[in-house]
Design a protein that fits this description.
42% of the residues lie in helices and 20% in strands. The chain is α/β, with parallel strands linked by helices and 265 residues long. It has one domain: Lambda Exonuclease, Chain A (Alpha-Beta Complex). Strands 1, 2, 3, 4, 5 and 6 form a six-stranded mixed β-sheet that branches. Strand 5 and strand 6 form a beta hairpin. The two termini are 13 Å apart. Bound molecules: iron/sulfur cluster. The site of iron/sulfur cluster (SF4) has 14 residues, from helix 2.
Length: 265
């Protein structure tokens, strides 16, 4: 059986194996899961159309094109969100498009990342999503749009895992190396670039091997207390931070991997 792994799952595992176990093996949904914000989703969709559907034989698009794309994707929003969204997109246009010599057609927009890895005799399917992939002379640049109010950079060890996973998967899909992962902050117009190297891939392979051993043995999911505990949905079940932890609720889900391993043995 193939076990799905994403950058988000690997980051959770690195932060705390016990939280990983509760979230992904015991399938206990976190209490603060509300889904993607509607404004952020609409902004991503409008930008995908902006870059995907532009007629690249023409000169640079003007502001009307960005207004047109926004109209297509903002219908379910409040009037305050619609105004906020157009201000963000106009800022994007002035920061990244208006002064360009020409708009270069991306390799892909709004798609799935897929890859494969075998570790400790387990098969892993690598999954993820990207907002845009640009083709550079010396490799690929993966663009991740950020619509949050704060320019808050992820922890460097977490971004390194994301880069490594994408490096591995994109090389399999495009036979090209990832050169940069870039976070593009839509509200401030800032772009932060992280260089990707083979070391990132090696680090992710190590981490997945480590996880594979725990999955096979189904033990060693120890709590790893740290600054993340303040916002952890599972703190009430965790003996590392709670004097008298609540029993873990029953869930109907059984680890698919354990099921497969048990059947095979
Ligand atoms: S409270 Fe901290 S140690 Fe406990 S599960 Fe959450 S992250 Fe892990």
């Amino acid at each position: 059986m193939v076990y799905q792994i994403s950058a988000t799952k690997l980051q959770t595992y690195k932060r705390c194996p016990y939280a990983y176990y509760l979230r992904y093996e015991h399938r206990l949904a976190p209490s603060n899961f509300f889904g993607a914000a509607a404004l952020g989703t609409a902004l991503h969709q409008a930008l995908a159309q902006f870059h995907r559907d532009w007629h690249y034989q023409n000169a640079l698009p003007d502001l009307q094109w960005i207004h047109h794309c926004w109209q297509q994707h903002s219908s379910g929003l409040s009037s305050r969100q619609i105004m906020e969204g157009i201000a963000i997109l106009e800022n994007y246009y002035h920061s990244f498009i208006a002064n360009a010599v020409a708009l270069t057609q991306p390799l892909a927009v709004e798609g799935k990342i897929q890859g494969y890895l075998q570790a400790e005799n387990l098969e892993f399917s690598l999954v993820g999503r990207y907002d845009r992939i640009d083709f550079l002379p010396d490799g690929l640049e993966l663009i991740d749009y950020k619509s949050s109010r704060d320019v808050k950079l992820p922890d460097s060890s977490e971004i390194n895992l994301q880069i490594g996973l994408y490096y591995l998967a994109l090389k399999q899909t495009y036979q090209q190396s990832l050169k940069y992962l870039s976070l593009l902050f839509l509200r401030s117009g800032e772009k932060i670039r992280f260089e990707a190297t083979e070391d990132h891939q090696a680090h992710v392979e190590d981490m997945i091997s480590h996880l594979a051993v725990r999955l096979r043995q189904d033990r060693g999911w120890d709590p790893q207390p740290g600054k993340q505990c303040d916002r952890c949905s599972y703190a009430r079940y965790c003996s590392a931070v709670t004097h008298d932890p609540a029993p873990i609720p029953e869930t109907r889900a059984t680890s698919q991997l354990q099921l497969a391993l048990n059947l095979a043995s």
